[in-house]
What we know:
This protein is of the alpha/beta class. The protein has helices spanning 2-5, 25-38, 60-64, 74-85, 101-113, 150-163, 193-201, 209-217, 240-248, 282-287, 290-295, 312-325, 360-371, 385-393, 409-420, 440-453, and strands at 14-19, 42-48, 68-70, 89-92, 117-120, 123-125, 137-143, 168-174, 182-185, 220-227, 237-238, 254-258, 271-277, 299-303, 330-340, 348-352, 374-379, 400-403, 423-433. It is elongated and about 80 Å long.
Amino acid sequence: MxxxxxxxxxxxxxxxxxxxxxxxxxVSRDAINLLKTYFPGSFSGIIFLGGTEKLIACDxxxxxxxxxxxxxxxxxxxxxxxxxxxxxIVYDLSDEPVVDYKIRMKIASFCMANRCSYMGPDFxxxxxxxxxxxxxxxxxxxxxxxxxGKTAISAYIARLLMDGxxxxxxxxxxxxxxxxxxxxxxxxxxIDEKYLLRLNDNGYHASSDYIEDALLSRVTTIGCRRCxxxxxxxxxxxxxxxxxxxxxxxxxxxxxxxxxxxSIPQVDTDITICTIGAFQEWDSLIGYLxxxxxxxxxxxxxxxxxxxxxxxxxxxxxxxxxxKFNPGAVLIRTVFRPEPLxxxxxxxxxxxxxAIDSIEKNxxxxxxxxxxxxxxxxxxxxxxxxxxxxxLDNSPEFDLILTELKAAAVDVLTxxxxxxxxxxxxxxxxxxxxSSKVDLKGELIKLIRRRKSK
Length: 454
């Protein structure tokens, strides 16, 4: 880390140090003086994290000869300390028991959200600006993991905004995306089983996110790819910048840039919407910089807010933690319900989904009640091909396959339907808002107008 501190481009940067009272003050002072000799930029001050075992100096500012910001509650005070010093880099000279790995992950989140890097003797969380700019209005839809509903939310929001008179396009990057960005005119192309099988035969991932977006939203969609994802969502490889250049030439007024997994598109967007699965544990969110994603969001959509995935007590706890770190964000609770894209009435159904199997009864009851079908077999193994094939082989006789356009929907289920002369219907997952008195379209329009007025 010494060499990273000594980099020439740090000459115009500011550095703050974290210390604790478990180190003898003389030791911390000598370490800070050594830190200053390594760093070519300016030293802005010290953040004292607590601990009293070896704290013999009461007037820390007099002892260290530097400005010192004392932390009483790291959750509420640390961002204030960063705002006070405005460092570009925070260097951690503290240790157990004052900070453990959970607290360090919180500190990393706070630093990244405040546009500064976080460094220690053997680690670096490097903040980099989102370098891709757009002349259009932009919304990023990111998440705290995979399979929490980003694509369904993206398509739903696109339709809402289109209904509100805003011309929308979606840019999606996925782990199965194309080598060169692909444009699909969702309102012009008939995305049916023949189209998807043809893509599959030509070596494309036919159930990639951008194809699902185009199918469900019926708006112009640009498919990109990405590989790798860091703690703070940094991507190793992507052609998103090339896709954004294509998007700039479209007639659309607004671009929805959809994240992949927990990765964050490197686009400097006007609005950020973060999706969180209600089943996710708070300690898990802390563990990989979920707090960073929460702090940067203008709107947070909790998905799958229903039993047995998550009970009311768990959801309330999750909401209270989220509000503590980002009280200004619009917070919305939702559940997903399947909506077939064509009629399934009177049909015996084989259902393929990636959802959590504990909500099987909720899903089946909804489909049979709302759409007059009979679900003879529900498989939640859509992302596990061997198990999915076994479910097909062991299923009672059925007329029609109903599936999400994800994972093995094309190369297993659609191919099976084609060979066996079965119908196949694709489904949307509609977010049903369970928060009282929340108008999602209205909140989105308010956020867009607020950004435009700045």
